[in-house]
Every structure is written in structure tokens, then in C-alpha cells.
């Protein structure tokens, strides 16, 4: 004996309308324009590599989240490049203006200073990583950051 009685599902759609197809009519102002607009052409050009990437990811069975992560990383790198990419050039230009006739010596000392800072940071970072691990980096960089803020504040150009 069945515990529940079988009852057909109620429907708000009439049986004769289930098979009928809707006819869509457009107003004269909504008719599609013939040809391609300038922005449409830009969109078509930009969609070509995007569709190629998506098709490659589908063919290789790469999860969509991987594509999203790669996009986020590319955008972060682009934002960093736009934010700090011109800093070295602006600093070098300011140094040349301030140095005046001694601009050649100042530029060479700037290059030596940058190279020493990069190599020194790599050596100290490697030693710190080998002895204390990754967790020591924030606590080591915090005093250096505070010192740089104090120096910048004392010069009055903060």
C-alpha cells in the first residue's frame, strides 16, 4: 500500500499554451543597426584573444577559477606597474635638477645606491629567511618602514 497518493502537479500554464511559441515584436527604434560601430569594432578585436584563451582553457579542461586567478594576478601586476613604474624616473629627474652641474656624479651615485640596496636586501633577506623563516619578515620590515616615515616627515616633504 502506497503511503502517498500520486497527484499530478498543478501548473499555472494552460496545457494549450505549453507548446505555443511567443512572438517577439520590436519597436521601430529597437531594430538592430546594420554595420559595426567603432566601439563594436573595439569589442570584436578584444573578444578575439579572450575567446581564444577561453577555448584553450575549455580544451585543456582548466578550471575557470584558475583563469580568474591569473586575471587577478595580471591586474595586480599592472596596477603596481602603473603606480610605481615611473617613480625611479621621477626620482632620477629630480636628482638631476637638484644636482645641477654635478648631475653626472649624482646619477652614477644613484645607480650605485640602488644596486647596493637591491643586493643588500637580497643578502639580508636570504639570511633572515634561512635563520628565522618567513614569519620574521614583517617584524623586520616594520622598524625600517617606521624609520623611513620619520625621515620623510622630518624633511617636511611628506
Description:
By secondary structure, this protein is an all-alpha fold. Among the domains are: 39-85, no CATH class; 102-158. It has helices spanning 38-59, 64-84, 87-99, 103-132, 136-155. The model has no long low-confidence stretch (mean pLDDT 81).
Share of helical residues: 55-70%
Chain-averaged pLDDT: 81
What is the overall shape?
extended
What is the H/E order? HHHHH
Between the first and last Cα atoms, what is the distance in angstroms?
Answer: 85 Å
Q: How many helices?
A: 5
List keywords for this structure.
single chain; 5 helices; 158 residues; mainly alpha
Quick description:
The chain is mainly α and 158 residues long.
Topology:
Elements: H1 38-59, H2 64-84, H3 87-99, H4 103-132, H5 136-155
Amino acid at each position: 500500500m502506497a503511503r502517498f497518493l500520486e497527484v499530478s502537479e498543478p501548473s499555472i500554464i494552460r496545457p494549450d499554451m505549453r507548446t505555443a511559441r511567443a512572438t517577439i515584436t520590436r519597436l521601430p527604434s529597437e531594430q538592430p543597426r546594420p554595420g559595426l560601430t567603432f566601439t563594436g569594432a573595439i569589442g570584436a578585436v578584444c573578444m578575439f584573444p579572450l575567446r581564444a584563451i577561453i577555448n584553450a582553457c575549455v580544451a585543456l579542461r582548466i578550471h575557470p577559477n584558475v583563469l580568474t586567478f591569473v586575471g587577478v594576478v595580471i591586474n595586480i601586476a599592472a596596477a603596481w606597474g602603473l603606480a610605481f613604474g615611473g617613480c625611479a624616473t621621477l626620482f632620477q629627474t629630480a636628482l638631476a635638477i637638484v644636482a645641477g652641474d654635478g648631475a653626472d656624479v649624482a646619477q652614477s651615485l644613484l645607480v650605485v645606491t640602488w644596486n647596493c640596496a637591491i643586493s643588500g636586501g637580497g643578502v639580508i633577506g636570504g639570511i633572515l629567511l634561512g635563520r628565522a623563516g618567513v614569519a620574521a619578515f614583517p617584524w623586520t620590515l616594520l622598524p625600517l618602514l617606521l624609520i623611513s616615515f620619520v625621515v620623510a616627515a622630518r624633511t617636511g616633504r611628506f
